[in-house]
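Weekend entry, working from home. Most of the wet-lab plans are on hold until the incubator is repaired, so I used the time to fold the two sequences that have been sitting in the queue since the last round of cloning. Logging both here for the record. First:
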Amino acid sequence: MMMINRFLKILPLLLVIGGCGAFGIQPDPPPPTAVPQATSSGAGEGGLIDKWFGDKSSGEGGGGGIAVNSFLWRASLDTMSFMPLKHSDPFGGVINYDWYSPPESPGERLKVTIYILDRQLRADGLRISVFRQTRSGEAWLSAKIDPKTTRDLENAILKRAREMRIASSVIK
């Protein structure tokens, strides 16, 4: 009888904890700058979770709970911070920006989607899609993008990611 009472006392707690996943609770996005992580052991060997499940970080900035390279992720957000962010998925490696009209040319607008494809900091781990539209009367019409624009954006993000990686190795 005493065991049944204990079970009935614990049952609501188990239901509440188990139900959190059904509401689509998502973790916070990664911080824009490196934040030192506290470990439970104090010896820098990782926390209790790492001991149970193993530390799978690659030392390339791919740790921190996201499935993509954190340097590419943060560099993408930093480089494109002038555009309005529409959606970001750090586990899938997709960052969508909404339409942006440059102040110097209000008759055109751009939209950018960034795909981070790898946990390693590599040039082929980043792909960018740029969409451009021009105004014709009241309607927006699709316009051609110069491939150099996409390449320049990729190079700017890769350069920023390398700077972040160098800065993080200096801090250690």
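Second, folded right after the first finished:
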Amino acid sequence: MIDKRTCEPPPPTARPKRPLRTLVRVSSGLLALLVPCLAVLDVPLFDRIEPRVFGVPFIDAYLLFWVLALTPFLILAARLIPSPDES
């Protein structure tokens, strides 16, 4: 007689649920990435040649500012979003 316990496929392994703290960290990290993206995509906010900032048209100065200011946002997101091996 065949034992049913040995013929059945193993039960599917369920992915462990992420704790709420992990989900909050991921959401915070994505929000940190969203802020500079929205600031650069809101073109009517900075689509001006005058005034000039240090002799550079405002549109160029604004975009250069966000290129330089993006680094802290990326560092913050990298620290907040957990790596896959981190449980």
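Plan for Monday: verify the second prediction. The chain has four helices and two strands.
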